[in-house]
Every structure is written in C-alpha cells, then in structure tokens.
Q: What sequence folds into this?
C-alpha cells in the first residue's frame, strides 16, 4: 500500500480494538506508531517491521510524548481497567503532548455523556450500576475514571472526537457504523457493533472534519435499529 504521507499513533495498540485500528491504518497508507504495555508487545507480532512500537504504560507522559511526536493523528483506547486513574492519565498525556492541530480520536462506551441529554434504557442503567459498583469493589474496573478522561477531552481546545461504542461483538465487517448525537435515538436501539467496524469508525474519523468536537454514539449499520431508522 502506498504511503499517504501521514503518521498516526494508536495508544493501546495491543488490545482487540487497537489491533483492528493498526491494521486499518496500515491499509489506508498511514505510517503507524503504537503504544502498549511492555508485556503486550508480542501481541503486535503480526505487524513486525511495519509499525514502530513504543512499549510502556499509556498513562506515562514520557512514553506518550515520544510516541506522538510528529503524528498527524492519535487514536486512543480509553481503558476502563485499573483504579489508578489509568484512562484519565492516558487522555491527559495525549492532550498535553500531541502536536497542536493533530486529530485526536478517543474510544469509550455509551455511558459517557457529553451534555447530559442521552436517554438510557432502564436495563442499560441497571447493568452499568451493578457492573460499575462490583468492578470497583473488586478493583478491576473504574468506569468513573473513563468519565473523568472524557471530561478532560471535552474541555480541551484540541481537534478531538470521542467515539462512544455500543456493546461490541466479533465478526465480519458490516461497513461504517451509523451514529447519533445522543443515546436514546431509535437508530441506536440495537446496541450492537462489530469491533472491526468500531475500529473503522475511529480511523475514518481522522479524515472527517464534521466529527471534530463531536461525541458520536455508534451502532452497527446492519443492525435492525439502524436498518429501520438510519436516514429518517
Ligand atoms: N467491550 C465492549 O463491549 C465495549 C463496549 C463499548 C465500548 N467499549 C470501548 O471500546 C474500547 C476497547 O474495549 P475492548 O473491550 O474492545 O477491549 P480491548 O480493545 O481489548 O482493549 C483493552 C485494552 O485495555 C488494556 N488493558 C487491559 N488490562 C489492563 C490493565 N490492567 N492495565 C492497563 N491496561 C489494561 C489492554 O492492553 P494490553 O493489550 O496491554 O492488555 C488493551 O489496550 C474501550 O475504550 C471500551 O471502553 C467496549
């Protein structure tokens, strides 16, 4: 694939979403840089020789500063794991070190609300409350830290996009997901997106100026709700 002359960094490159994004970015001709924890570098073996990897914790400002240097775009997986401010630390490092004007695209879940105008189904709220509390008790997930990470992104004057993912599943691509400004829009009701298509949305957002300073909530384009309501 010919180079498109642009450099793109994937923060959290070794995860499932991260690896899809690396693959798609390479297909689109980006020079790709990745950041992941040292122990996860082997998960990027399939890209050996084709990407530059910066091993380290993604909330380490020194690691991020090195990785994003000269990048036109930074795609960041906001991790809800850990209870030591990992997601907010990661977001802060990207906001502080990406070059001015770079396109910054962040991933998170529907539970993030930019303006408080999202309307959540009761079962979504119940599940979020139970899982959130249990996970925090067990010290594995801190959803609140992803909220803090996004609060900092929303407040920044960078060229950000926060892509709010529905429940995810594996499977063949169905094409670019459809999106809405707010959860509660009937188009999103199916609450299901293929992970590969989430990655596609993240990568394509880089070139879509209409998504700058937007927080699209996405859903698979072939889900029943998208088929019934897209474009209405
Ligand atoms: N799963 C869903 O149904 C769902 C729904 C909506 C939105 N999302 C969003 O989609 C994004 C990707 O989520 P995913 O579920 O598909 O997972 P994923 O892509 O596999 O990503 C998980 C990430 O978390 C890192 N990680 C795991 N344990 C960690 C720890 N203890 N400390 C630090 N980092 C750790 C992984 O790094 P290593 O490779 O180093 O382990 C990897 O980068 C997230 O932003 C998530 O909020 C997911």
A:
């Amino acid at each position: 694939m010919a180079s498109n002359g642009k450099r793109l960094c994937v923060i959290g490159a070794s995860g499932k979403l991260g690896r899809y994004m690396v693959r798609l970015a390479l297909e689109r001709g980006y020079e790709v840089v990745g950041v992941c924890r040292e122990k996860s570098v082997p998960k990027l073996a399939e890209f050996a020789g084709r990407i530059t990897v910066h091993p380290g914790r993604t909330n380490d400002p020194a690691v991020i500063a090195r990785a994003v240097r000269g990048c036109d775009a930074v795609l960041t997986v906001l991790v809800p794991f850990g209870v030591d401010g990992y997601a907010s630390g990661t977001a802060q490092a990207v906001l502080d070190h990406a070059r001015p004007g770079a396109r910054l695209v962040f991933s998170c879940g529907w539970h993030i609300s930019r303006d408080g105008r999202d309307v959540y189904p009761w079962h979504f709220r119940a599940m979020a409350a139970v899982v959130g509390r249990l996970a925090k008790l067990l010290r594995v997930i801190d959803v609140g830290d992803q909220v803090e990470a996004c609060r900092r992104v929303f407040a920044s004057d960078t060229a950000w996009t926060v892509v709010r993912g529905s429940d995810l599943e594996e499977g063949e691509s169905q094409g670019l997901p459809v999106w809405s400004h707010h959860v509660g829009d009937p188009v999103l009701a199916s609450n299901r997106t293929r992970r590969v298509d989430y990655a596609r949305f993240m990568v394509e957002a880089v070139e879509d100026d209409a998504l700058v300073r937007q927080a699209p909530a996405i859903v698979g384009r072939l889900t029943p709700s998208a088929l019934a309501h897209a474009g209405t």
Remarks:
- The pocket of NAP is lined by residues 12, 14-18, 36-37, 40, 43, 77-82, 86, 107-109, 165, 167-168, 195 (CB under 6 Å).
- The chain has one domain: 7-229.
- The first strand starts at residue 7 and ends at 11.
- The radius of gyration is 17 Å.
